[in-house]
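Researcher: We plan to redesign the surface later, but first we want a full-length starting point. Tokens attached.
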């Protein structure tokens, strides 16, 4: 019989699984039970419109059989089953997302995390089994097939015998070694425990043969007998009362259902009664999913109608800016056989979505207020998304989001909200200042920052590409406008200072013109500035687009030649300016080199690139020759 090879990516994952000494290998059970339950959901769903299915809701079940002698665990369901093609496609490949490519680029992510986030499902069987056999008969087919594999080498597929529609998965446990003991999975008590822990909420009965003992009639002796027992309570967690649920239960549920190896950071469980009633159980992951900021990421909540899942990822339930929330919504007011297209226009659904959005915002606001440390952790993972949210759609949602935003500020270099910033503002301070740079250290040392700090004004340090766009979109907070430290109209000088400056500019008109002529098109103008203290020069933008924004826009694929007008600002009180003046007056041939080096220096402090780096060294050398 031909051995089929796994697709390359599957083989890699399989190797990871087999070699995994992952301590949570027990999760294979919940993964397979969850697959079985999904398969039953699919058949039940079909039965709503297809009377040929011939099953009642009470007929569905998942069976677990342990065979100590042969060391096998068998999981059987009477769900929809798989055709030959489906066995091939579903179990022969797992390359459904780009996570493996991703892994190559980010080798520092350890394998386990990738496995966890990816949700390997069926393949987790290979963490405990040396051979896995799947016998399945699909609904509507009269043939059954057997898929069998011993791991990454490949699998075989052949015709088989199976009376009813459904799937049986037989796992032949790995041999015990000195380090690892797999016998625990043959222990009824242990398996029952795992089911109640991870799969209790499954809607269909999970049945096992359990050994029991009873007193014999007319005697004091005990006898053992076996009984088929339903192990799970079948009550969905979200239907239970909040105060009856332990944190652990929420955490286990989240991890098993939403493929995470870590506990969620926050659980949001609500029951809402009203025109539209619904239960929602939502989670904020504790870490950014590895694919979160890629286009592969799909937001959405699972949608249930009265306990039956009708959609796995209902996008319409979450606005993009809360796309990191995972979870589910269950409402009896939604029709079970509503189609995807109809759902989009469903009024009930949009009522639920609005209410959910509010709920999430309230929870985040509460977290910010009551648990700062946690919120800052949240911010680290998902803050970027909220900033995008405030910026997107021309700021349509800025009012909703602005109080959730945080930026690092010069106030102890800590994260601050806009509200906190405004509360700390000095009476004479009119604007909210910000400085953009690659990182905080650079921002702190920007030439323009010094003077504002000296006045005792706080500065927000913007280090992410979205930051300035976001603030520009918000425009003002609490009637205070946002102002870049590089803004040409900072308006910080006193009347006297302004006059003094005017005079200075008049006196130095010729030299400023000479510098401009020397630099040519590199700058739009050259002027004196009072915003510098220890720095001799700085570069600012003469347009609405700042230097930082230009950098971001230039890096975009759609960059259509943004080039902003730059202004070279010179500190007239700096000794360097005296040198410039001296060289100009003596008509020194080094004047041009000095202008060029000062200009380059200003670009570099701003974190910008030199237009022609190879020009820099010779001109600097010529300048310092024979000092
Ligand atoms: P996932 O469940 O995340 O899609 P799996 O690797 O666990 O990934 O399963 C792959 C696919 O195989 C499933 O989507 C489903 O179509 C099919 N499948 C797995 N188990 C069963 C089963 N017991 N009955 C029917 N189909 C199944």
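Model: Full-length starting sequence:
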């Amino acid at each position: 019989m031909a051995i089929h090879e796994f697709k390359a990516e599957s083989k890699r994952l399989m190797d990871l699984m087999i070699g995994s000494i992952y301590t949570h290998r027990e999760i294979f059970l919940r993964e397979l039970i969850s697959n079985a339950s999904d398969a039953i959901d699919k058949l039940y769903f079909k039965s709503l419109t297809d009377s040929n299915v011939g099953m009642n809701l009470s007929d569905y079940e998942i069976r677990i059989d342990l065979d100590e002698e042969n060391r096998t665990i068998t999981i059987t369901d009477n769900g929809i089953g798989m055709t030959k093609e489906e066995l091939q496609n579903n179990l022969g490949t797992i390359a459904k997302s780009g996570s493996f490519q991703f892994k190559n680029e980010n080798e520092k992510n350890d394998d386990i995390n990738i496995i966890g986030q990816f949700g390997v499902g069926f393949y987790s069987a290979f963490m405990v089994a040396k051979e896995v056999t799947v016998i399945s008969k699909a609904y509507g087919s009269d043939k059954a097939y057997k898929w069998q594999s011993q791991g990454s080498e490949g699998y075989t597929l052949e015709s088989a015998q199976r009376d009813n529609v459904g799937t049986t998965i037989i796992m032949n446990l790995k041999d015990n070694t000195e380090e690892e003991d797999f016998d625990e999975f043959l222990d009824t008590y242990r398996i029952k425990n795992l089911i109640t822990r991870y799969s209790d909420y499954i809607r269909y009965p999970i049945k096992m043969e359990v050994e029991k003992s009873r007193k014999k009639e007319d005697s004091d002796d005990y006898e053992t007998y076996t009984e088929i027992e339903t192990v799970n309570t079948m009550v969905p967690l979200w239907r239970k009362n909040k105060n009856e649920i332990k944190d652990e239960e929420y955490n286990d549920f989240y991890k098993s259902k939403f493929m995470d190896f870590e506990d969620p950071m926050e659980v949001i469980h609500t029951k809402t009664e009203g025109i539209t009633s619904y239960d929602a159980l939502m989670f904020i992951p504790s870490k950014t999913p590895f694919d979160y900021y890629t286009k592969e990421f799909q937001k959405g909540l699972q949608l249930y109608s009265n306990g039956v899942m009708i959609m796995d990822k209902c996008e319409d339930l979450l606005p993009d800016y809360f796309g990191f929330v995972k979870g589910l919504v269950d409402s009896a007011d939604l029709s079970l056989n509503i189609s995807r297209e109809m759902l989009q226009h469903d009024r009930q659904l949009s009522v639920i979505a609005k209410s959910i959005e509010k709920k999430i915002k309230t929870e985040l606001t509460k977290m910010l207020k009551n648990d700062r440390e946690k919120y800052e952790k949240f911010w680290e993972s998902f803050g970027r998304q909220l900033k995008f949210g405030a910026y997107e759609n021309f700021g349509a949602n800025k009012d909703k989001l602005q109080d959730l935003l945080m930026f690092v500020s010069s106030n102890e270099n800590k994260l601050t909200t806009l509200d906190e910033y405004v509360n700390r503002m000095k009476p004479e301070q009119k604007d909210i200042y910000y400085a953009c740079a690659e990182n905080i250290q650079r921002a702190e040392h920007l030439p323009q920052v010094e003077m504002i700090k000296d006045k005792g004004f706080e500065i927000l340090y913007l280090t992410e590409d979205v930051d300035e766009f976001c603030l520009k979109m918000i425009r003002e907070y609490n009637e205070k406008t946002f102002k870049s430290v590089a803004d040409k109209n900072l308006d910080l000088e006193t009347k006297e200072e302004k006059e003094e400056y005017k005079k200075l500019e008049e006196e130095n008109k010729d030299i400023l013109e000479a510098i401009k002529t020397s630099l040519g098109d590199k700058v739009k103008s050259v002027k004196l500035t009072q915003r510098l203290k220890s720095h001799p020069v700085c570069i600012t933008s003469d347009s609405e687009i700042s230097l930082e924004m230009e950098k971001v826009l230039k890096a975009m694929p759609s960059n259509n030649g943004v080039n902003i007008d730059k202004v070279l600002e010179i500190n007239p009180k700096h000794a360097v300016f005296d040198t410039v003046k001296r060289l100009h007056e003596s008509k020194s041939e080094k004047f041009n080199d000095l202008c060029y080096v000062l200009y380059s220096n200003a670009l570099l402090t701003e974190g910008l690139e030199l237009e022609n780096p190879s020009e820099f060294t010779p001109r600097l050398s010529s300048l310092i020759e024979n000092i």
